[in-house]
Structure formats: structure tokens, C-alpha cells
UniProtKB/TrEMBL annotation:
SUPFAM superfamilies: SNARE fusion complex, SNARE-like. GO terms for biological process: endoplasmic reticulum to Golgi vesicle-mediated transport; protein transport; retrograde vesicle-mediated transport, Golgi to endoplasmic reticulum. This is Protein transport protein SEC22. Coiled coil: none annotated. Residues 138-198 form the V-SNARE coiled-coil homology domain. It comes from the Eukaryota. It comes from Hydnum rufescens UP504.
Length: 219
């Protein structure tokens, strides 16, 4: 289920809004909320726009849209599709209500009033069966981005925060993989072309010789 949500400005990690959590949730998720602050500080223009970071019994999912980071903490078993569908709904409403003001605010939690919408939306996503039913249209809209959940970068919190790994490095790795994949596709095309040339070269050569012979014989 969705446990807690926080929204921050990507450029400087300034918190803009957060869900109002009860005392028990605050205690349970204290460490993970500290981790979310570290994640916000690691965000750069080259960071992956969608990422799921596993941390113990929970997963921190974040979405970056227009210099705003939407991060939610869910149970580890909670479906990633639903987590990102939830974040996408938040991002669209937040952009509509506060979009032009994001770059101008200077104090933390300037948009605390957005908590009402976050809590209302989170309740729809608390139960996976209910969330799946109520978010079908939203998931259809996101199908192009989320149908293949392997596109969402997944990282372990320990690797990300304590072993010197970075969101930039994750982005570079993703870019490198795409580049290597393109190289392999190009190599495959070249191999296929070479094989086709080897297959048809004798036939073409014979045809040219035959044409030359006919030209010499009759002209």
C-alpha cells in the first residue's frame, strides 16, 4: 500500500508538499524519509526520470516532471505500475494548480494544501484490487511508458546511497546500454548485408559475364 508521499523541487531539493502522516507512520518510516531527502539531493538533470529504489520492507518510487520530484514510499510488494500511476496523477494535478509558482517559492512546504488531494488519491490506491479497478483508464493512458515495467530503473538503497553509486551513474548506464544495443543492431545489419552479398555475388557476376558475352557476340 501507499505509505507516505513527498514532493520536492528537483533543482535544489526544496520540499514543496508532503502527506500528513500519523505518529506511527512517522516512526516506522523515519529512516526511509531520511533516505528520500538524500535521494532528492542526488537528483540532477541527468537522473533517471522514473526510478524504484528498494529499501528493506519498502520501496521508494520517484517521478521527475518539469523540475518537480514526486516520491512515494510503498510496501515492497506493492505493484510498480500502480505506484507510478499514483505519482502521475499527483504530477498532473500539481502542475495544474501550482505549476507556474514552483520556481518562485523560497520557503519549504509552500504548497502544504496539496496534502488534501494526495490523501484523497492515496486512499484510492491503498488496496491493490481497488486501485487496479479505479485506475484502469489512467494505466491505459500510461501504457506506452509503463507496459514494460523493466523500463523503470530499479536500484537497491544500499548500492545507491552507501556504495557511492549515483543517480547520474544509473542514467549513464542506461544510456550506455541503449548505445550498445544500437551498435549491435547496426552490426547485425552489416552482417546480414555481407551475407546477402556473398550469396548473390556469384549470380550477379555470372549475369554480367553473360551480358558482356552477348554484347560481344552480336554487336
Amino acid at each position: 500500500m501507499v505509505r507516505s508521499t513527498i514532493i520536492a523541487r528537483a533543482s535544489d531539493a526544496l520540499p514543496l508538499a508532503a502527506s500528513s502522516d500519523d505518529e506511527q507512520t512517522e516512526q516506522t518510516l523515519h529512516e526511509h524519509k531520511q533516505q528520500s531527502k538524500l535521494i532528492f539531493r542526488r537528483i540532477t538533470p541527468n537522473a533517471e526520470p522514473r526510478c524504484s529504489i528498494e529499501s528493506g520492507a519498502y520501496t521508494l518510487h520517484y517521478l521527475i516532471v518539469d523540475n518537480v520530484v514526486y516520491l512515494t514510499i510503498t510496501d515492497k510488494s506493492y505493484p510498480r505500475k500502480l505506484a507510478f500511476s499514483f505519482l502521475d496523477e499527483l504530477s498532473k494535478e500539481f502542475a495544474t494548480v501550482y505549476g507556474p509558482k514552483v520556481e518562485t517559492v523560497r520557503k519549504p512546504y509552500a504548497f502544504v494544501g496539496f496534502d488534501t488531494f494526495m490523501q484523497k488519491t492515496a486512499r484510492l490506491y491503498q488496496d491493490t484490487r481497488t486501485a487496479t479497478a479505479t485506475s484502469e483508464s489512467n494505466l491505459d493512458r500510461l501504457n506506452g511508458d509503463l507496459q514494460d515495467v523493466t523500463r523503470i530503473m530499479t536500484k537497491n538503497m544500499e548500492e545507491l546511497l552507501w556504495r557511492g553509486d549515483s543517480l547520474d551513474k544509473m542514467s549513464h548506464l542506461s544510456t550506455s546500454l541503449r548505445s550498445e544495443s544500437e551498435k549491435y543492431r547496426k552490426a547485425a545489419r552489416d552482417i546480414n548485408l555481407y551475407a546477402m552479398l556473398r550469396q548473390w555475388a556469384p549470380v550477379v557476376a555470372f549475369g554480367l559475364i553473360f551480358i558482356i558475352f552477348l554484347w560481344w557476340r552480336f554487336f
